[in-house]
Amino acid sequence: MTLKKGDNLKKLNLPSVSGKNFRLSNVKGRKSLISFYRFAQCPFCNLRIHELIKRHDEFRGNLEIVAIFDAPLGHLIKSMERHDAPFEILADEDFSYFRAIDVEQSLIKFLIGSVINIHRLVQASMKGFIPLSFKGSMLTVPVDILINEKGVVEHVYYGKTTADHMNFDDILAFART
After folding, report:
1. Does residue 91 sit in helix, strand or coil?
2. What gap in Å lies between CA 159 and CA 174, rounded to an integer?
3. From the CA atom positions of the chain, what is the Rg in Å?
């Protein structure tokens, strides 16, 4: 089911790189950004995680962030060690939650994203985000979901390419209202 404003996410229960299982009920009563990413060593995804960490204070504690990767947990743990993220990073090892919300996989969007975002790829590479192992899909197109305190989807953004995410200004505006 493609998500839209007013929907509820189905129950989420996934393993976290912190060693615990994460449930959607963990963020109940809080505004949340739930993002679906590609494979664990995706340069674009790691750059986005890096940016979320750098800008985390701008959310003023008003937004819980949850990152979900198409990756085996052990591989994700090793890949995320360098980030020390102040938010949850989860592994959807069988792609079931991705399928549940119609996360797209597209060769065309992969090619377009790689070409028009070459500057982001260079930026990611300069930070050392170079994929050495591909466990998960390179063709997954990211999805970002803003959920209100009642657990209802306020805004959902299905990426236009494999490097596309919701604008930071939209996330900040949601966190601050």
Report:
1. strand
2. 18
3. 15
Q: Which residue has the tokens 């079931």?
A: 96
145 — phi, psi (to 5°)? -130, 125
How far, CA to CA in Å, does 45 sit from each of 162, 164, 165?
Answer: 9, 10, 10
Domain ranges for the chain: 13-176
Place of tokens 């790829």: 121
Superfamily for domain range 13-176: Glutaredoxin (3.40.30.10)
User: Which pTM does this prediction carry?
Assistant: 0.95
Pairing outcome for strands 143-147 and 32-37: antiparallel
What's the mean per-residue pLDDT of the chain?
Answer: 95
- Closest CA relative to residue 14, chosen from 98, 109, 115: 98
